[in-house]
Design goal:
Layout (H helix, E strand, L loop, with lengths): L1 H23 L12 E5 L17 H11 L3 E5 L10 H6 L4 E6 L5 H17 L3 E8 L1 H4 L4 H14 L4 E6 H6 L9 E6 L8 H18 L4 E7 L15 H18 L3 E3 L9 H4 L29 H20 L7 H26 L5 H32 L21 E7 L4 H12 L6 E8 L4 H14 L3 E6 L5 H11 L7 E4 L5 E2 L3 H5 L8 E5 L11 H22 L11 E4 H7 L8 H11 L3 E4 L5 E2 L6 H21 L1 H5 L7 H36 L9 H24 L5 H13 L1 H13 L17 H7 L1 H20 L7 H28 L29
Parallel strand pairs: 1-2, 2-3, 3-4, 4-5, 5-6, 6-7, 7-8, 9-10, 9-12, 10-11, 14-16
Antiparallel strand pairs: 12-15, 13-17, 14-15
């Protein structure tokens, strides 16, 4: 039944995906392209040619282009007579094409003189030169003063019999009406894309400006020297560049131009990739034909946005089916709602990914575009992997029918109680706190156990002597060791204890020095070891001081997510993270593996090696002991830094086992260890992204005319990941952790506040070999305001940098860069500042003794989750 349900869900969403592609690509009927049009702007450059580098087309190439246009157009308009472009009039004669001959003018006066001389000679020599354009947007670019341009025009008019004019935008003509006295016709450029006009209004808008010029200059003919729409490029306000919009605009315009007897030159015949470094990427895509001389859209058939949509839809469905099949593996307990949720996410991601890849492959490739595209595709792949992992955990945390490996497997009739050796590592711990821990161990309701306290490297004798004396009072089963010097940090202390463990002890249990354990701990959990494959029994970390302050209540809310969501889903595939407190390990496997003194998260590393040895672990989501949380934000950060850095050490050391098929780990174990740490790697990438974002934004502010905002796809990636993870947290904290709205918000802020720390740890962990072990201090003093600000100084600087960058980008952007790209980039900068601002909030919370009741200290009991939901963090 589950297989049938999965197939039906996959088929349903495949159908919906095809339907969505079909709806977005439904044909639009527009007037057909005329058999013959008035004129084309003509630049005969090929993909490897660039006039700015004097790389000119050959006469054969020009002749081939004119032959392609023969019979399709009355005239072509040129812009320059440099090199072989001077041969266009002669070559066009045999194809019966008229020429609007152009002379290129700029600030180089000597070259202007050459252009003027050649244009006059060609116009006098060739009867197919029907008009001459002296200069192209000279005033718009500011290359020459008005008076100098007028002199060039007057010279040409005096020398030639053909009409002479110049080409400028409509608003430039209105700004300089006196220029009309020096021309025979008004050459106007009507390019509504650059003005951000939506394509549906663009033809009416263009013709309204055309008529406005006719009314302004009633005694001059108005010729549209350029009119067109790009097939690719940035969205500018409401103007979207696409093949379909280019076809729609031009086919509508040509219909109106024929009815109203307008003289025009369509911009342009062929795509010109060389223009990208002058006008941005959009400069390459104004042609009706691409650079390979193929039509870019249908001339008579209905317009379809993406003609290849059938193939793209099929590919997106195929990719989605493969990914969905992998996610459905070993997910027999997942309800149909969970499977449907995964289907929605997977089909959406696959469709977007296929579209982005397709869109990338349609552009003309340059070194910069290839680099940018590869970075985009790699970033997209990383975001997709994290999103899929987050979605899978979300589904398995909420929409399951049963848990195969969850619960407290007390074995009925069991009478055997194997000896347990409890190891308590300590370094410079407050004596009263450690004595409280030992007193709780003395109250254990279990017959055969010993306690080894290993105080390593504490220098102050007054700290460890009271503990030593208390162990003596508790009896012979409590043994105390003070060792100095002792290498290896906590792992070294635990290995020292292991060597001194009682010979008849079969199980080793480890707790931190601040944990007060439940008397039933050993009695309830040792029976699990009757299963000879079980090597680890893990109970959750829990805390008893969440009622002391709002800061600790916030930290407690953040901790709960992992132990009540992540560990439960990992346990289903025998892939839990072993943590170094409230853990029990079979001695034989521990002695075989030992604690890794090279890794600062020796507990998680040991658990992975035990899995690699072929043994199992189980997680019991019942609190059997409660410890103390960090007292300050800086300690909270250092603890998380150690966890993230250690995870990267493990990932590097065990890479072969984790990433290679056929090893000792199951596919589910490899998946959870990689997917579980992937969000931390993503935080590291996000840190690098933010640094790059600051650099890019500074460049935008410094040179707003040269540096555009990143494409909207670069902005969508971090925004989508941030939004998805936040939605997941809010939902699961409410339904699986039993948190109220305030606690959920507190957990989100606390988690976001650690993003920079985790990102830094991930980058360092991947690039360096080791970091010192940091012990989390307990029962320390609350930090003051100055310390709180210092603890978040890096995050404060990043908050200021990102928010100021957003403000500066918004206030220095040029009008022609406004659009979704700019807006999305500003939003990204503001959203990316949220985690850094959250760090400041959490740090300030640690500095002020706000009461825990502001957030609440009790959590709702969740049905079927066991005693772990008896949610009084104060231990009541």
């Amino acid at each position: 039944m589950k297989t049938l349900g999965s197939l039906l869900i996959a088929a349903l969403f495949a159908t919906l995906t095809f339907a969505a592609w079909a709806y977005l690509n439904r044909p639009t009927r527009e007037p057909p392209w005329p058999a013959r049009i008035q004129g084309f702007a003509f630049s005969p450059f090929r993909a490897n040619e660039d006039p700015t580098h004097l790389e000119m087309p050959t006469d054969e190439e020009i002749d081939g282009d004119l032959a392609l246009l023969e019979g399709k157009v009355n005239a072509v308009r040129t812009y320059s007579v440099d090199g072989t472009l001077a041969d266009v009039p002669e070559l066009a004669e045999k194809h019966e094409l008229n020429i609007a001959l152009g002379a290129w003018l700029d600030s180089h006066r000597d070259k202007n003189e050459e252009q003027m001389k050649t244009v006059i000679e060609l116009a006098e020599a060739h009867q197919n030169v029907v008009r001459v354009l002296i200069g192209n947007e000279v005033l718009l670019r500011g290359d020459l003063p008005l008076e100098e341009l007028e002199k060039y025009l007057d010279r040409a008019r005096a020398a030639l019999g053909q009409p002479v004019g110049t080409a400028e935008t409509w608003n430039t003509w209105l700004a300089h009406p006196e220029l009309a006295q020096h021309v025979d016709f008004i050459g106007v450029h009507l390019l509504p894309y650059w003005e951000g006009v939506a394509v549906d209004r663009a033809v009416d808008y263009s013709l309204s400006q055309f008529k406005r010029l006719q009314q302004t200059f009633p005694h001059k003919q108005v010729v549209i020297a350029e009119i067109g729409w790009p097939s690719r490029g940035r969205t500018r306000e409401s103007a979207v560049a696409s093949d379909a919009n280019e076809a729609l605009f031009l086919r509508r315009f040509l219909y109106r131009a024929h009815k109203e007897q307008v003289v025009y030159y369509v911009m342009e015949a062929f795509d010109q990739p060389w223009k990208a470094h002058m006008e941005g990427a959009v400069g390459s895509y104004w042609g009706v034909y691409d650079v390979n001389r193929r039509p870019k859209f249908e001339f008579t058939a209905p317009i379809v946005r993406v003609p290849e949509w059938h193939l793209l839809a099929a590919v997106s469905v195929a990719v989605a089916l493969v990914v969905l099949g992998l996610l459905y593996l070993n997910s027999s307990s997942l309800r149909n709602r969970g499977r449907s949720f995964l289907a929605v996410v997977v089909y959406a991601i696959a469709t977007i990914a296929v579209w982005v890849f397709y869109d990338f492959t349609q552009q003309y490739m340059t070194v910069s575009s290839i680099i940018a595209g590869v970075l985009l595709l790699l970033g997209m792949l990383g975001v997709i992997l994290v999103l899929l992992a987050e979605a899978h955990e979300w589904a398995e945390a909420h929409w399951v029918e049963y848990r195969r490996r969850l619960g407290v497997p007390i074995l009925a009739g069991n009478t055997r109680s194997p000896k347990v050796s409890i190891h308590v590592p300590a370094y410079n711990e407050p004596p009263a706190m450690l004595i409280e821990t030992l007193d709780a161990l003395a109250r254990l309701d279990y017959g055969d156990f010993e306690v080894l306290v290993i105080d390593n490297n504490t220098r102050d004798e007054s700290v460890w002597r009271p503990v030593e004396a208390h162990c003596a009072r508790l009896g012979t089963r409590f043994r105390f060791f003070h060792v100095a010097p002792l290498a290896g940090f906590k792992a070294g202390a635990l290995n020292y204890a292991l060597a001194r463990t009682a010979a008849d002890a079969e199980i080793v249990a480890v707790i931190d020095s601040d944990y007060v354990v439940d008397p039933r701990w050993l009695c309830d959990l040792t029976p699990v070891f009757q299963d000879q494959r079980i090597a680890i029994v893990q109970a959750p970390q829990d805390y008893r001081d969440a009622d002391q302050s709002a800061f600790k209540a916030m930290c407690y809310a953040e901790y709960r997510g992992f132990f009540h969501i992540g560990m439960i889903t990992r346990n289903e595939r025998n892939a839990i993270i072993q943590h170094g407190t409230m853990t029990m390990v079979r001695r034989a496997q521990l002695e075989s593996c030992r604690w890794a003194e090279w890794c600062i998260t020796e507990d998680a590393e040991l658990g992975l090696r035990i899995f690699e040895a072929g043994f199992d672990a189980t997680y019991v989501p019942v609190s059997y002991g409660r410890g103390l949380m960090p007292d300050t934000f800086i300690d909270f950060k250092k603890q998380r830094f150690r966890w993230a850095y250690g995870a990267m050490q493990i990932l590097k050391s065990h890479a072969r086992t984790l990433f290679m098929e056929g090893g000792p780990l199951s596919a589910g174990q490899r998946y959870h260890f990689i997917a579980g740490w992937m969000p931390w790697i993503a935080d590291g990438v996000n840190l690098l992204f933010n640094l790059a974002a600051l650099g890019w934004s500074c460049a935008m502010v410094w040179a707003p005319g040269k540096v555009d905002p990143p494409l909207v796809m670069y902005s969508v990636l971090p925004l989508s990941l941030f939004t998805f993870k936040l939605a997941k947290l809010v939902h699961l904290y409410r339904v699986r952790v039993g948190a109220n709205l305030r606690q959920t918000l507190a957990a989100a802020i606390a988690g976001l506040g650690l993003t920079h720390t985790i990102g830094t740890a991930a980058v360092k962990g991947l690039l360096t070999r080791s970091e010192p072990f940091f012990r989390t201090p307990k029962r320390g003093r609350t930090a003051g305001l100055a310390h709180a600000l210092a603890a978040a100084r890096e995050e404060i600087l990043m908050t200021i940098g990102l928010t100021f960058s957003a403000w500066a980008v918004a206030h220095t952007a040029l009008p022609d860069t406004e659009g979704p790209d700019l807006f999305a980039w500003i939003v990204v900068l503001l959203v990316q500042s949220v985690p850094y601002a959250s760090s400041l909030v959490v740090s300030l919370m640690s500095a002020f003794p706000l009461p825990a009741r502001l957030l609440g200290t009790r959590y709702r009991a969740m049905a079927g989750s066991g005693r772990e939901a008896e949610a009084d963090p104060a231990g009541g």
